[in-house]
Design a protein that fits this description.
By secondary structure, the chain is of the alpha/beta class. The protein is built from 23 helices and 24 strands.
Length: 646
């Protein structure tokens, strides 16, 4: 209970002066906003406030519960001071619901004392302005709560405010006695026209696994969002929250971290570097492409086909939406089937680093609820907690040990892979969630891999699931003395002299950060269109596969045609182009071919594990192109004129 009295006005006046001096444009936009009932934020940089008024900044940091309401009132004073200039404008009014949101970026508050990990929040952090960073794992429903109630004593007619308490989940308890000294009445009435309401949402954030110590379990903490902060973040977002600490955290300012990460600002000089790189390799484009691919998982020797497949999967094709609103996904999916020790998990981990938003899980530790959504009961009501595929929405979901998942758990990802949604009907909650994630799986073959059997028999994965993967690469650890000698010397040389590198200049250009920027840039910048030559090659190959498909019946569906288009578009993006040429179509065919157990065209593809980088890839491609076009010419409507080598 708080008696209505005049607060000490000094801090409020100082803050009002600061707002007029530095944030006049924000005040102007708030005054000219049309709806006076809404809550408006005013973003203030803490670093700037410290320079201007260190004492006030210290008070806000050390006593936010007392000072944040005061500086919210200062925003109303500041509006009144400058309102004269806007009086004649339409919709101009002084807004009473304005909240100061404090951004501590670049200020001393980013030190470890005031920016601990979630698991290290202690008693000493109570009641100060704290900064926490974590991933949102649960976002509750948005409710409306009362901000304050004004009661009137029926005996002495005193009016006083009662505020809700955090411990009682923001419910307002009726006062038990009158706060006036001379009156001990217990009868009150509510002043109805003075109600103030707020939007309210509870979320839960979990600390990032990257900052955990050895053997630590990630901790989570509930955070309360009010007014303009509600619905700013959803499950899976990295969240940076400034809050005033109580038994739970009450947020003052929220910043989405992975939105900043996905909107990576790529400097003009970096884009010029990309363009210069491709102009240098104008005559030998495939050599330039291979230079980029060498930067993918550089610790693994060779495996050219796998590195190409990883790059094409991460880049992906263009989503197609027809006139009726039906969508054909643009994301590609990749499955690695291989013997132990063939580097599958290494590729998964590296791909997760290249993606802006990624979730890694293993098959044995994943249930259907853990992959999709879980219904949890919290405070008497049911809410949904996001699983791996929802957290990876717009990014990459890596599932290791795919074969160890239970069959009914594996079936839950069918819808997520093709329709890119997850439909849920649990505990009275019926909804559809978006999951535009790339699925990257790794699995061991069931027993000894038998080349005479179909892929679904060898992997114990069902046909419908296999048909959803654009590329399925089989890595067999066959005995090959020459390969073993080369690989062992590569691994030993890395151990002895880690600094020696044959392509040092190219590896310097294509570091992990650079490849990440490159993938992000080509995904946003290029939307490749198929040329007539590429269409003919893809169409002819699809028809040929349909004719000769006996063992691969599960793979040669209409999805395979869509996969070919996606992979060709991804290769065009990788080659820094806006049109899909014959080269892209044939590379897509070679990728699909290497994932077939019995090839319809190329008999000499061999094992993907032993695929190495060629010295002259452009000449090698010319041979493969001639071979593929000769095989495809058996389709009657394919013109003979296309059978040329470069």
């Amino acid at each position: 209970m708080v008696k209505v009295t005049e607060n000490d006005g000094e801090p409020g006046k100082e803050m009002a002066g600061f707002l007029i001096k530095y944030h006049l444009s924000q005040l102007r936009s708030v005054i000219l906003a049309s709806d006076p009932r809404l809550h408006y934020p005013l973003h203030v940089d803490f670093a700037k406030l410290m320079d201007d008024n260190p004492q006030l900044a210290h008070h806000i940091f050390s006593q936010p519960t007392e000072y944040l309401p005061l500086i919210d009132e200062s925003a109303i004073w500041a509006q009144k001071v400058i309102f004269e200039d806007f009086k004649k404008m339409e919709n101009a009014s002084v807004k009473t619901h304005v909240h100061i949101r404090i951004n501590v970026c670049g200020s001393p508050l980013e030190c470890p004392e005031t920016f601990p990990s979630i698991g290290r929040v202690r008693v000493k952090h109570r009641g100060i302005l704290l900064t926490l960073k974590g991933t949102v794992i649960r976002s509750g429903a948005i409710k409306m709560i009362e901000g304050e109630k004004i009661y009137e004593c029926r005996v002495c007619k005193l009016r006083f405010k009662v505020h809700p308490e955090v411990e009682t989940r923001f419910t307002i308890t009726r006062p038990s006695f009158c706060p006036s000294q001379n009156c001990e009445s217990m009868r009150f009435q509510v002043v109805e026209d003075k109600q103030i309401c707020h939007d309210y949402q509870e979320i839960k954030i979990q600390e990032s696994t990257q900052v955990l110590g050895v053997g630590a379990i990630p901790r989570s903490v509930p955070v309360i969002l009010k007014d303009d902060l509600v619905d700013m973040v959803k499950a899976g977002d990295m969240k940076d929250v400034r809050c005033d600490l109580d038994p739970v955290l009450i947020a003052n300012y929220v910043r989405r971290m992975n939105e900043l990460k996905s909107d990576i600002h790529i400097a003009d000089d970096v884009i010029m570097k990309f363009k210069q790189f491709w102009s240098d390799f104008k005559d030998t484009p495939l050599k330039g492409r291979n230079a980029i691919l060498r930067g993918i998982c550089p610790q693994i020797f060779g495996l050219f086909t796998v590195k190409l497949a990883v790059a094409l999967t991460l880049i992906g094709g263009v989503q197609h939406v027809d006139a009726s609103g039906t969508k054909v996904r643009g994301e590609s999916h990749l499955l690695l089937v291989g013997d132990p020790g063939t580097g599958k998990s290494q590729f998964l981990k590296f791909a997760a680093k290249l993606s802006n938003r990624s979730v890694i899980t293993t098959g044995l530790g994943s249930t259907s609820a853990g992959l999709t959504v879980t219904a949890v009961k919290d405070g008497g009501e049911w809410m949904l907690e996001a699983g791996a595929l929802v957290l990876a929405d717009g990014g990459l979901c890596c599932i290791d040990e795919f074969d160890s998942m239970r069959e009914h758990d594996r079936a839950t990802i069918h819808e997520a892979m093709e329709q890119q949604t997850i439909s849920v009907a649990k505990a009275g909650l019926v909804t559809t969630l978006s999951s535009k994630a790339i699925v990257f799986g790794a699995t061991n073959p069931k027993g000894q891999y038998d080349p005479d059997q179909s892929l679904s028999v060898n992997t114990a994965l069902s046909g419908p699931l296999l048909s959803r993967f654009d590329i399925v690469l089989v890595l067999l650890d066959t005995k090959n003395p020459q390969w073993d000698a080369v690989v062992s010397s590569h691994i030993l040389s890395e151990t002895e002299q880690p600094k020696i590198n044959h392509d040092e200049n190219l590896s310097d250009i294509w570091s992990l950060t650079m490849i990440r920027r490159y993938i992000h840039f080509v995904k946003g910048y290029f939307r490749p269109i198929l040329t007539k030559e590429a269409e003919k090659v893809i169409s002819s190959y699809y028809q040929l596969q349909r004719r000769s498909a006996t063992q691969n019946a599960a793979r040669t569906t209409i999805r395979m045609l869509e996969s070919l288009i996606r992979l060709a578009q991804a290769h065009a993006r990788l080659m820094f182009r806006n049109e899909v040429t014959q080269l892209d179509a044939i590379t897509a065919i070679l990728c699909i071919e290497s994932s077939m157990t019995t090839s319809a065209i190329v008999d000499s593809v061999g094992n993907a594990l032993h695929s190495n980088f060629m010295d002259n890839p452009d000449q090698e491609y010319a041979k493969q192109e001639r071979l593929i076009l000769e095989k495809l010419s058996c389709i009657d409507d394919f013109p003979e004129t296309n059978i040329v080598g470069e």
